[in-house]
Write a structure and sequence with these properties.
The protein is of the alpha+beta class. Among the domains are: 14-171, no CATH class; 286-392. The chain has helices at 44-52, 72-78, 154-162, 165-175, 185-212, 219-241, 247-257, 320-328; strands at residues 14-18, 25-30, 62-65, 86-90, 113-118, 121-129, 132-138, 286-291, 302-311, 338-345, 353-360, 372-373, 376-382, 389-392. Strand 12 (372-373) and strand 13 form a beta hairpin. Helix 4 (165-175) packs across helix 5 (185-212) and helix 6 (219-241) packs across helix 7 (247-257).
């Protein structure tokens, strides 16, 4: 909807009721348009007020509302069972129950107050400025009390002290928001619900810390910890159901859920601790590479290939198809795979051989696979062209 006098003019309007002291959101409901209350033959303000206060009916609390909600019939109904609630709120001067003497009059002095009483209702008209008159209705006050210091009616002071809970709650949601820009209104609604739930949880947390007399975390620290705790169970399920996960993703999940990863490298042939060279082959190993048809090394003296090594499965054949099938069931980033870089010196045409030497133990994203010797498997792909190179050694 569009509200021109609001800081955020466009958006989904959600009507809230909040606790004054803690700013805890008690209930909320989205505004669904002018036709919402027609079926029950009731003004929208009264409809939403009764809807949102169901959880506190019968608690003898007070409601503070603006002039969109406040009306004489609503105030009278809230005093009766099952509501048993009092009401303080500004009221529009176009209501038919308002006497003409209480409306704006330029001849009235600034700072004057008029009180009107009807059964348990109290109406006050206060003129703070020459061109402004404020009307408030209260079922909590029954005396024409005026503060001697400020000169304002006590009803207005009570209203000012209790009117800011919803605005403060909305402001706090905006300060630490998880919302993202989107054109899908259901997702926008979900972000709003999530912001309100996160703030409510922090309010409960702070209240519990006050009871236990402990220092609470900052809201930023609380939200970070809460987000990790909410993801923890799902990350554990993902870790269990997806064994073929990239090594860096698995390490990040283990770190986030607090799993000990010291035993992640217990596979045969793997040494624990930091490694600078491959554990499966000699760093000075010389390879003879036979290039595939229609593939040529570059004109530069050396071409670099990213290489992956793993212990060869028992009974594997030395054919390219067998090696490719073996790699399909082995996660490239698992603890049983080493990655390092080979450089090759070009000597001749496409059918000629090139020799390669392992020059570093760097580990990074792999490009692909190939070759077998004894109990070791080495896979090689050219980094940019992604061409497979077959080799024997």
């Amino acid at each position: 909807m569009y509200i021109p006098n609001k800081p955020a003019k466009y958006g989904i309007n959600i009507v809230l009721v909040c606790d004054v002291r803690s700013k805890y959101m008690i209930d909320a409901s989205p505004y669904l348009g002018k036709n919402t209350g027609i079926t029950i033959n009731e003004p929208l303000g009264s409809y939403y007020c009764k809807l949102l206060t169901k959880t506190i009916d019968g608690t003898n609390r007070n409601l503070t509302s603006d002039n969109w909600f406040t009306s004489i019939p609503l105030a009278e109904q809230l005093l009766k069972p099952p509501y048993n609630l009092t009401l303080i709120g500004t009221i529009r001067n176009n209501k038919q129950e308002i006497p003409a003497e209480f409306k704006h009059n330029s001849l009235r002095g600034v700072g004057t107050s008029l009180f009107g009483f009807h059964e348990k209702l109290t109406l006050v008209s206060y003129k703070p400025k020459p061109q402004k008159t404020v009307l408030l209705l209260s079922t909590m006050h029954d005396k024409p009390s005026v503060d001697p210091v400020s000169g304002k009616p006590v009803i207005i002071q009570s209203y000012n002290e209790t009117k800011g809970a919803v605005d403060t709650f909305d402001q706090m949601c905006g300060h630490s928001s998880c919302s993202r820009k989107t054109k899908r209104w259901p997702l926008c609604m979900f972000y709003g619900m999530l912001n309100m739930a996160l703030l409510n949880s922090y309010i409960i947390y702070v209240s519990n810390c006050e009871i236990m007399k402990t220092k609470p975390m900052t809201r930023r620290e609380f939200l970070k910890k809460l987000s990790k705790d909410l993801c923890k169970d799902w990350c554990a399920i993902r870790l269990e159901e997806r064994p073929l996960m990239q090594k860096r993703v698995r390490a990040a999940i283990n770190e986030s859920i607090g799993h000990n990863t010291d035993d992640d490298t217990d596979e045969p042939g793997i040494k624990k601790g930091k490694r600078s060279r491959c554990d499966f082959c000699d760093p000075k190993l010389k390879l003879s590479i036979i290039l595939k048809q229609d593939y040529h090394l570059g004109e530069s003296p050396k071409d670099q290939f990213l290489v992956m090594c793993m212990p060869a499965p028992v009974g594997i054949e030395t054919s390219e198809q067998s090696i490719s099938e073996a790699w399909k069931i082995k996660p490239p980033y698992s603890s049983g795979v080493d990655q390092h870089r080979f450089t090759f010196s070009y000597r001749g045409g496409a059918d000629s051989a090139a020799t390669g030497t392992c020059v570093c133990g760097a580990r990074g994203p792999h490009e692909a696979f190939t070759t077998v010797k004894g109990t070791n498997t080495i896979s090689i792909y050219e980094k940019e062209k992604k061409a497979t190179a077959l080799g024997k050694f």
